[in-house]
Amino acid sequence: MACLNVAQKENLAAFCKAEQIHVLWDEEMKNHTSFKIGGPAKAVCVPKDREQLKKLVCFIRQQQLNVWYVGNGSNLLVSDEGLDGVVILLDAPFDGEIVVQNSILEAPAGKKLSAVCTAACTASLTGLEFAWGIPGSIGGAVYMNAGAYGGEMKDHLLWVEYLNRDGEVVRLEKEQLGLSYRHSCFMEKEYEGVCILRAAFLLEAKEKAAIQSEMDRVMAQRKEKQPLEYPSAGSTFKRPQGAFAAKLIDDCGLRGLTVGGAQVSTKHAGFVVNIGGATCQDVLDLTEKIKACVKEKTGYELELEVKVLP
Ligand SMILES: Cc1cc2nc3c(=O)[nH]c(=O)nc-3n(C[C@H](O)[C@H](O)[C@H](O)COP(=O)(O)OP(=O)(O)OC[C@H]3O[C@@H](n4cnc5c(N)ncnc54)[C@H](O)[C@@H]3O)c2cc1C
């Protein structure tokens, strides 16, 4: 794929102007990630609906530009050099509202999990309480098969619609989504470059007060255990089979280990936090140190859960 040269930038600018697609030039990705890390993306485009998105995707393909989809940026570590291409930001107004019909809840990719959990609770539908407090969008949560406190997206997803590279909308049923621990088919080569548009969840009726009480319990646990006072991307590593990453890191005495502005949280060893001015390289150097030490002392190989761009 080509980088964004001057001519391509001019073409993209003309295209976005004609299609009225909002675009930010040389936009610092630290403004769009929960880690508050990331250099400038050549262009950040914010389509407001799927028609704009379709046209944009076709244009990007035709121009052979690099493209990255970003939801709420809460599981991303973006390079200090930035991204030489187009970031498509699926922001909240993208593609309409949450729709609840009987026990099925449909949400567009850009909706935050907080809005979706609130809508489910308001409709007296149970199932998504586990996701209360995960700071992602529906698109990112489906992509990651986000989960917590014994629940995951996989448990309640019914179908997902995505836009393929030819600009066509395709629907996948739950069993086609390849969902497993922090994995969906969208991470596989076959789906590279596609954009998740919308997801539907099959939920169950329950008394609103009971749903709210479970959401409160989950949020209280997050506040007690997680270093929410610092920028981070949540759990840095995946849970290795038969162990917990945080416990392994802790047992190796790595709590508080610091490289530049990146630190193994002193509150929760599973989180690398940005204690001030951390660079992507700081985080990468720190995670390499953690991996090496854990491997040497325990034999476990830790794998990043956080997605590194590019
Ligand atoms: C404080 C904190 C707590 C967290 N707690 C949890 C937790 O309990 N459980 C958990 O699972 N995660 C947790 N996370 C991580 C993160 O919130 C989740 O992984 C979330 O689902 C990511 O959603 P996002 O919209 O921010 O995705 P992003 O970070 O924007 O993107 C993540 C990946 O999804 C892709 N993507 C996003 N949207 C689309 C789309 N529409 N189409 C195609 N690809 C897309 C991106 O390209 C990227 O590869 C936590 C993070 C923080 C900061």
What's the number of structural domains?
3
Which CATH architecture of the largest domain is right? 2-Layer Sandwich
The CATH class assignment of the largest domain is Alpha Beta
**Measured distance between first and last alpha carbons:** 12 Å
Largest sheet: 5 strands, antiparallel
Low-confidence stretches: none
Strand content: 25-35%
Mean pLDDT reading: 96
Shape: globular
General description of the model:
The chain has 310 residues and is of the alpha+beta class. It folds into three domains: 84 residues, 2-Layer Sandwich (Uridine Diphospho-n-acetylenolpyruvylglucosamine Reductase, domain 2); 114 residues, Uridine Diphospho-n-acetylenolpyruvylglucosamine Reductase, domain 3 (2-Layer Sandwich), CATH 3.30.465; 83 residues, Uridine Diphospho-n-acetylenolpyruvylglucosamine Reductase, domain 1 (Alpha-Beta Complex). Helices cover 29% and strands 26% of the residues. The strands form six sheets. The chain has a five-stranded antiparallel sheet, with helices on one face. A four-stranded mixed sheet has the order 1-2-5-3, with helices on one face. Strands 15-18-17-16 form a four-stranded antiparallel sheet. A hairpin with a 6-residue loop joins strand 17 and strand 18. It is globular, with a radius of gyration of 20 Å. 41% of the residues are buried. Flavin-adenine dinucleotide binds next to strand 3, helix 4, strand 9, strand 13 and strand 15. The site of flavin-adenine dinucleotide has 33 residues, from strand 3, helix 4, strand 9, strand 13 and strand 15.
